[in-house]
């Protein structure tokens, strides 16, 4: 769930931001063959349509990104504005593949920013994903062809300094970050001061990896709550390190801990936790915790656990994503394996199991052996 700001300013033009990671609120309607919606900006109405065309992939409703699969199309049209410039910002480099514009339009690319121009102006423009998939995270229409001014990146040397910037600021990340948890393109990491921020982008990181300083990206306050960094290019190669979540009391979990990976001790579950994506509750020292099995860990039985969580924000309140249960009574642990490396499993007789099925095993990771339920 992250989106790079357009990072542009069009001098002497009227700009209409049609989409900026807000597809869920734009009321797209349709099905696997195409989705469409009308957007009104400053009294001018535009239509956005995705069309399956020759694509072999079924189209999904645009939410945080508009996905234009290979050989499918996107059309932007307006009867109110003669469009001369359309800026399509890709979500990340691997989804910034070639787009073929309709007649009269030409495209230039600078990093993740793709600028289509038509000197004569047009009521519509269609773009076909000619290479691989193209994912749009920001879409801006202008009534003039204007020079793109890419703001100079400013150096930041800590998470505190980063989040003090205005959202959509281009930055050079001049500090190391240690990875606390990874789930696909979402990386939760902290600086030397222990302050957390989320990075959104393709990666091969593991828990404990140290991301070096010196890379460029954009800072964004996503959904007005979640501080994020979106790399301009590929993320740098990390070095191996260690990460230990800080123990915090349930009463101290507030919105200020957003993106933090923390440990809450002595969490009591009165019933077994869900095995599917679902919300549930636990209690620690008399404080009720709003938890979610967002990463679909296996269910654990009722009991008392030390629980590692990622703090997120939902409806302006902490929503806690569980990443690890450690039983206080059985010594058995259930853990999300996707964020760790060099994992081996053994049965209770000590024989190595290459492909463990559901059951109780000895799990060895980074030299540490624990009993786990899969």
Q: What does this 3D model show about the protein?
A:
The chain is an all-beta fold. Helix content is 1%, strand content 49%. The chain contains 1 helix and 31 strands. It has one helix at residues 159-163; strands spanning 15-19, 29-31, 34-41, 44-51, 66-68, 73-77, 83-90, 99-101, 106-110, 113-122, 124-129, 134-142, 154-156, 169-173, 177-183, 186-190, 196-200, 210-211, 215-222, 226-231, 246-247, 261-269, 279-284, 287-292, 303-314, 317-327, 332-335, 343-346, 352-353, 360-365, 368-373. Strands 21, 22, 23, 24, 25, 26, 27, 28, 29, 30 and 31 form an 11-stranded mixed beta sheet that branches. A hairpin with a 2-residue loop joins strand 9 (106-110) and strand 10 (113-122). It is elongated, with a radius of gyration of 23 Å. Residues 1-11 have low confidence and may be disordered.
Mean pLDDT: 88
Helix content: under 10%
What proportion strand?
over 45%
What is the terminal-to-terminal distance? 28 Å
Low-pLDDT segments: 1-11
Rounded to an integer in angstroms, the radius of gyration calculated over CA atoms is 23 Å
Please outline the major beta sheet.
11 strands, mixed
DSSP strand count: 31
> Which structural category fits the helices and strands?
mainly beta
From the spread of the alpha carbons, the general shape counts as elongated
Count, helices? 1
Brief overview:
A hairpin with a 5-residue loop joins strand 16 and strand 17.
């Amino acid at each position: 769930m992250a989106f790079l700001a357009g990072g542009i300013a069009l001098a002497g033009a009227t700009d209409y931001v049609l989409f900026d990671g807000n597809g869920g609120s734009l009321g797209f309607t349709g099905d696997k063959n195409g989705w469409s919606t009308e957007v009104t900006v400053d009294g001018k109405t535009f239509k956005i349509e995705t069309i399956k065309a020759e694509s072999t992939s079924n189209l999904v409703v645009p939410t945080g990104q508009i996905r234009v699969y290979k050989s499918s199309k996107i059309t932007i049209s307006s009867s109110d504005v003669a469009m001369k410039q359309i800026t399509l910002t890709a979500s990340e480099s691997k989804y910034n593949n070639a787009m073929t514009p309709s007649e009269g339009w030409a495209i230039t690319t600078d990093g993740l920013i793709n600028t289509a121009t038509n000197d004569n102006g047009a009521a519509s423009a269609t773009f076909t994903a000619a290479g691989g998939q193209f994912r749009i995270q920001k879409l801006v229409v202008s009534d003039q062809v204007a020079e793109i001014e890419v703001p100079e990146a400013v150096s930041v040397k800590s998470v505190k300094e980063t989040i003090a910037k205005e959202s959509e600021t281009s930055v050079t990340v001049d500090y190391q970050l240690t990875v606390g948890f990874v789930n696909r393109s979402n990386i939760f990491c902290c600086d030397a001061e222990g302050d957390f921020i989320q990075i959104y982008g393709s990666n091969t990181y593991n828990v404990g990896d140290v991301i070096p300083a010196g890379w460029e990206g954009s800072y964004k306050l996503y959904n007005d709550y979640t501080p994020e960094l979106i790399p301009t290019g590929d993320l740098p190669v990390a070095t191996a390190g260690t990460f230990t979540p800080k123990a915090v009391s349930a009463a101290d979990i507030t919105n200020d801990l957003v993106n933090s990976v923390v440990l809450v001790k002595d969490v009591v579950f009165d019933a077994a936790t869900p095995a599917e994506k679902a919300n549930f509750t636990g209690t620690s020292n008399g404080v009720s915790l709003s938890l979610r099995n967002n990463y679909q860990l296996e269910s654990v039985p009722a009991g008392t656990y030390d629980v590692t969580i990622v703090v997120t924000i939902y409806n302006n309140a902490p929503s806690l994503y569980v990443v690890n249960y450690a039983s206080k009574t059985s010594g058995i642990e259930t853990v999300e394996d996707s964020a760790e490396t060099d994992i081996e499993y053994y049965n209770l007789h000590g024989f190595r199991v290459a492909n463990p099925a559901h059951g109780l095993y000895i799990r060895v990771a980074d030299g540490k052996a624990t009993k786990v339920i899969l």
